Amino acid sequence: AQSVTQLDSHVSVSEGTPVLLRCNYSSSYSPSLFWYVQHPNKGLQLLLKYTSAATLVKGINGFEAEFKKSETSFHLTKPSAHMSDAAEYFCVVSESHISGGYNKLIFGAGTRLAVHP
Amino acid sequence: EAGVVQSPRYKIIEKKQPVAFWCNPISGHNTLYWYRQNLGQGPELLIRYENEEAVDDSQLPKDRFSAERLKGVDSTLKIQPAELGDSAVYLCASSPFPGLAGGPVEQFFGPGTRLTVL
Predict the structure, then answer these.
(1) With a CB-CB cutoff of 8 Å, which residues 16-35 of chain B face chain A?
(2) Distance between CA B104 and CA A53 in Å, rounded?
(3) Of A4, B5, B89, B108, whose Cβ has the fewest other Cβ atoms within 10 Å?
C-alpha cells in the first residue's frame, strides 16, 4: 500500500530565503509523485510531478523537487520565497498502473507555509 | 478555459438534515472524482466516475452518501442524513482520458464546498 508522510505541519520562512518542504513516501510499486498547492478558497493546483523520468523535477513558480529512491524522499524546494508562496502544500503518491492512466492519489496531511516580510 | 465548478461554496446545516453538492467538470474530461478533506488533513477519495459509471466507490459510506453522474457530465454528491462528523470540505476533480501512452494524468480540482454540520 502507498502512503506519504509530510514531516512538517508548519514551515515559516522570511521572504527571499530558501524553502524546504519535506516528504517521505512508501510504495510497493514504481511510484508517481506529485506536489499540489492549495491557496485559501482556491482549488488544489499541481506544482510538479515525477513519473520515473529525470529525478530532479522542475515545476511552476520556481519550485523543484528531487526524487531520491534510496531515501524514499521527494522534498520540495525553492531558492527564494515570495509572499505569494504562502499556502498549504500537499505531497501526493500514486500507484503507476501498467494499463490505463488512472492513478489513485494518496495525499499527505499537508504543510502550511508561512512567508514573513 | 473554465475550471471545475462547484456549488455551493459553503453550506451550514443541522444534523440529520440532507445536503447536496454539485460539480461541473472541465469540458471533455471523462473522469470525475469526489474527495473529502477533513480539517488539517489531505483529501481522501470518495468515488471516481469514468463517464457515467462509478468505477471506484469503495470509500463512499453508502449508508448515508450517494452520488450520481447522469449523462457523464455534471455530478451530484448527497448526504442523507448528515452527521456532525461529516463537517469537511468536499472537493470535486476531473481529468481527461489518459490516451494510449498511459501514465498518470493530472487531476484538476474545484474550489470545494465547505460543509458545517451543527
Answers:
(1) 31
(2) 13
(3) B5
